[in-house]
Design a protein that fits this description.
The complex is a heterodimer. By secondary structure, chain A is an all-alpha fold. In chain A, 66% of the residues lie in helices and 2% in strands. Chain A has a two-stranded antiparallel ribbon. In chain A, strand 1 and strand 2 form a beta hairpin. Chain B is elongated and about 55 Å long. Chain B contains 3 helices and no strands. The chains are: A mainly alpha, B mainly alpha. Chains A and B meet through helix 10, helix 11 and helix 22 of A and helix 1 and helix 3 of B. Chain B: Keywords: Membrane, Transmembrane, Transmembrane helix. Chain A: It is a multi-pass membrane protein.
Chain lengths: 838, 111
Amino acid sequence: MTQQSLSFPAKFHQQLEKVWGNLSGWGSLAAVNHTSIGARFMVTGMFFFLVGGLLAMLIRTQLALPQQEILNAEVYNQVFTMHGTVMMFLFAIPVLEGLAMYVVPKMLGARDLVFPRISALGYYCYLFGGLIILSSLVMGIAPAGGWFMYTPLSDATFSPDKGPDFWLIGITFVEISAISAGVELVVSILRTRAPGMTLDKMPIFCWYILAMALMIVFGFPPLILASILLELERAAGWVFFAVDGGGDPLLWQHLFWLFGHPEVYILFLPAAGIVSTLIPVFAGRPLVGYRWVVFAIIVMGFISFGLWVHHMFTVGIPQLAQAFFSIASMLVAIPTAIQIFAWIATLWTGKVTFSLPMLWITGFLIIFVCGGLTGVMLALVPFNWQIHDTHFVVAHMHYVLVGGMFFPLIAGLYYWLPHYSGRMPSHLLGRWAFWLTFVGFNVTFLLMHLTGLLGMPRRIYTYEAGLGWDWLNLLSSVGGFIMSIGIAMLIIDIALHFRFGRPAQHNPWGADTLEWATGTPPGSYNFASIPSVSSRHPLWDNPDLPATIAAGEHHLATIEHGRRETLGTDPINGKIRDITHVPSNSWIPLQTAIVIAMVCLCLLNKIYWGALAAAIVAFIMLFRWSWHNGAHPVAAPVRDDDPVNPPLHSRTFDGPGLWGMVVTLLSNGTLFLSLLFGWFYLWTVAPNWQIPDHKAFSISGLLISGVSLTLAAWVYLNTLKRLRQKNDQHLERRLWISTALGLFHIALLIFIFAAAELQPRAMAHDAILCVMMLYLLLHSGMVVIATLLQALRVRKGYVSRTLPYEPMVLQPLWLYCLSIYWISLAVFLLLPQMRGLS
Amino acid sequence: MTHPNHPLQLIWGLTLWAIWFVAVYGGLSVACAATDWQRESPLSLNNALLLLATVATVLLLLWLMKRCWRARHPAAGHRRFIAVVSAALYAASALATIAVAVPIMLLPPCV
């Protein structure tokens, strides 16, 4: 802390606000700050929740009585499809990500997330993607095939309208947002914790969010690939899922549920994180079994990826395979139970205060346990066969998702509301909202179990009278409206509290975690100085921490340099490694998202040249974005007074960008593995799979191209080795050589692709080869252009032996390109030619 | 990365379980597609290979568990935390492998 800031703390805070604050007026659209972006995610998510809720009310109105014609079959199909789509993709995930974005940096003792501009891009991708999907509903051409979009119902033959296109393109757009948030959260949690915050001292909420973010990173790519393949099939006629050409509709189900089942846990984990955070606060004691809960989080994160086939028990798979997935489905109940026992033990041994958030937590415990029990029932194959596609499944799903996600979410909103607004909610309105929602929910969905057991199928728009379903449906609908009234009261309470709420005292719930050491509402910089941490409960140990933080008595209490800075720490021991400078306000994320939205709109309207042009512009903008990084004058220009101990991250070999690249490539690698899975699946299972007699590509040409790529990568990696030895002699020339070799590789690859006589519209085999080739070209193109830019940056003085960071970030990308090239050559081309396999 | 107190120990066990799961499920599907074993009993070559993979995986997981458990004592703080939680995770991975593998002894592979 400088003498000047000690003497003038108010001035110091003003300086911090000037550096970290958003621009005013329309300039707030250029905001990247995690508090603003997190709040925007949540507000937008709640808007979509209201849309999804209105659609649910339409469903319940239609089903309240038999043989109603309020909605016809086509409109009803659109309504239930959009209800599921909006709730799952546009409400549940984004709102939880928004909450995580808002809370996590503050809990970690950081001033921002590490890639705030990516957060902003993610938000705009989500907003525009959501609006694109919603526009289809307004125009009456919404998708109508269910939120899982099964083929062949969703292919061009059975759904010739644009509804599935809106779903596929819009959802892919939204998923860019989800993955970007996932990468952001993983790297931030691993690299920007407060000094001393080792893994065993990390707030339990951050463990949950780390697991959720990693699950997003690995769980979403299968659906992104499936969406791309289905859109290619619909728009260009390439064969992937059509049986005639050697495809298989079940491939869609596998890829969808490879995403879809982990998705349930992606929603549950952050919600459970809220529960594990709130229960100790309201019980007034630490969480019982912290280590067991961490254990349970990790087990759940993994096992939940091994359950996807339990959504497909009725499609016809061998008994042994069904048994694998049945047992895995039951196994996942064990880590869930560990957490529930930990929560009950914490409550049992504590002195519980039943404030509003705790009320919602209690509702969660009751509803979620019921949903979990029916989940174990559904894991049993014979029972699953009996009630498959009935309202029993609808009831189970809502018990798990509303109980396991919505109730904890509202508990969390009430808990952190005073943090955001500085005011307390109304206990009277809040309690009414809870009880109406709780009673309404159970009346709606508890009865639905019975309706399902009595044989009422899902997704029917009406039913005959006298089947025994009439009174159950009527009561379900009444319950649905009671629940709606409860949610309306909740919204009224939250809206009114901003104006009429009682001002909150500091840390009103007596919490233990660092987010309550910021101001309430928080400043844009969170912490005027960043404290060291020595336990899991910093505020219980040292209640004066907020005051000493505000007084600038801890780390990084300087701002004269004008940079946005937070501490970069070691992911294992929590020691300070560098000063991470994070980007400030920028229009680039918004501009890029607008251009990507144009790509989507052009694709929807089949203006393919426009889509191509917009995609090229988007890539140019992304590379321009990368140009304004590192030592560039607008980011962190080289200065004589640059800190050296710890150094700025751009002066090291191991900053957050490298970690971000690795995590992104893990996600990308999952997409590639999904493509390999599709290839092997069709090869072994599709009834009409064929491998053509002729060779698809010139193998010798591909070998030469591969050697060129290998040489390019070798030159690049060798250059990095020299850079690590502080040798930057001929650095620019070496990067140019690598670029030239890479360009030769790409040119040869394009020539080979153009010369091949592939028939992607006739054969799934050739269609997958085309996708593989485009994937390789895209990646080789990216790495070569990025290397070219590095050469230019060396010339500009932004990269050198004292500024070695950026070339290090590209290293994993080079290795990735090399790997996928040779794996593709071996698996897609050489393996089928081996004797006996074709 | 291989030290018993390294944080990556927290994920190796279940990663091995996941690889085993994919190999067994994928191997089963490929074997059923490539052979004509639909009528065979559980006592088939197919099941024997699946069991062999299971036993090897479980033994490896148990050895890794023992290694982490032994590393907990000299360590303190976060190093001890990682060793203990990792040992439990290896044990859970071994149990998950055994549990999922039980049907291999009871059911024919391709029916």
